[in-house]
Every structure is written in structure tokens, then in C-alpha cells.
């Protein structure tokens, strides 16, 4: 029988920041840049997914703080947007931007655009200020 090494759970803001830092490390260490484009789409997709996960952690904590005991984890982007819309329009705009930049363009389409991905990462960092 082996012992499982468990890491103490970090507060949500620290965990989201850790995800965001991991995404930056993937991009800087593995994706490679040339002429404003990433060289390896595989790592762009990986980093985009990681950064988008950070955004979802932030949104979950934000909703948890706003809704208290009534909080349940949203099950779709539509659920996130409907619930965030009730509380903060600026955060809603950030969510829409991050969804497009990181989830759709970065993760699904695998853009090579450094500007697009960097804008998405900056938007996630701005979302961190909400929790």
C-alpha cells in the first residue's frame, strides 16, 4: 500500500493564480515564439485550457461569495453568464472576453497569435481582483 501525498488545499485566489502561472510557464518554456506567433499549437492549447480553468475557479469563488449557501456550481457557460450578469457587468465582460480568447480561439481553434493569448491571460489576471 502506498501513501498518497496530499497537498493542502490553497485558497481559491491562490489556486487560480497558480493555474495562471502554470499557463504562463507552459507558453514561455514550451510553445516557443517567433514573429508574434507561437510555434507549437499543442502547448498553446494546453496553456489556454489551464488559464481558462483559472477563470472558472475565480468565477466559482465569486459566485460562492455572492450566493452563500444557495451556491451550486454552474453547469454551462450560459449558466455562468446569467448568474454573473446579476452581480457585475464588468466581470461579465471579462468572462465573455476570456471565453472567446482562451476557450474558443486558444483551446478549440489553437490560435498561434501571441497577442490573443496574452490578452486572455491579462483578462484572467484582472478577474482575480474580484475574489
TrEMBL record:
Domain DUF5618: 13-131
Matching Pfam families: DUF5618
Name of the featured protein: DUF5618 family protein
Amino acid at each position: 500500500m502506498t501513501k498518497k501525498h496530499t497537498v493542502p488545499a490553497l485558497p481559491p485566489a491562490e489556486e487560480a493564480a497558480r493555474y495562471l502561472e502554470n499557463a504562463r510557464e507552459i507558453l514561455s518554456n514550451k510553445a516557443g515564439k517567433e514573429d508574434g506567433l507561437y510555434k507549437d499549437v499543442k502547448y498553446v492549447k494546453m496553456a489556454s485550457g489551464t488559464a481558462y480553468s483559472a477563470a472558472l475557479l475565480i468565477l466559482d469563488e465569486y459566485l460562492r461569495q455572492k450566493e452563500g449557501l444557495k451556491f451550486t456550481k454552474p453547469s454551462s457557460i450560459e449558466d455562468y453568464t446569467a448568474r454573473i450578469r446579476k452581480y457585475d457587468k464588468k466581470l461579465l465582460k471579462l468572462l465573455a472576453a476570456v471565453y472567446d480568447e482562451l476557450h474558443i480561439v486558444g483551446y478549440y481553434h489553437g490560435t498561434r497569435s501571441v497577442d490573443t493569448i496574452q490578452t486572455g491571460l491579462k483578462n484572467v489576471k484582472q478577474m482575480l481582483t474580484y475574489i
